[in-house]
Structure prediction request, 210 residues.
Amino acid sequence: MTNKLLIRRVAAAIGIAAVSGAAVVACSQAKDAASSASSAASSAASAGASAASSAASAGASAASSGASAASSAASSVAAGIATKLRGPHGEVDLDGPAADAYAKYGGEAALGEPTGPAQKVGDGTVTEFGKGTIFESPTTGAHVVQGEILREYTGKGGPAGDLGFPTTDEAQTAGGPDVANGGWISEFQKGTITWLNQGDGTFKGTITVK
Prediction:
């Protein structure tokens, strides 16, 4: 009887030990699973942050490239980069100063298309457009003359005549053409041409030679 009781107690102890061992194993496995889940979540968060950082970096790089391109374009205009224009008789080349004057004055909207290539006059060039002309020389730079002042100027021989090359672009003066004694003016190496409102709606050109 005593032996049977002893065997039962030993079996019970073994059973308890087995249950405890199983509980320990289960607990360890649960900890391992939790650790793996935490590691996976951390990796996912790190990957997401890295992707966001890469996207932000790409966006900043694109913005920087765009700003650099705009700055380069502005610098090119300031530096006077030669330009090709298409006119009714084919392509026309404008050198740097003439291209700057063309753009500054409003381009095709203000001057129209070129009617032909630049013509050599003295030490300078003359490039005609549908609505005006760019006169350029090493001494005076490139300037626009148009309208009635251009007609008066060419009638006096243009840059080869008494006035020489223009030293300024044609501009409004004395309040502009809607005001009595106002209108337009162009300065030249050897004189001035004005086209002014006479106060009665008519205009008159005046050439003053230095």
Remarks:
- The CA atoms of residues 164 and 189 lie 5 Å apart.
- The chain is about 50% helix and 25% strand.
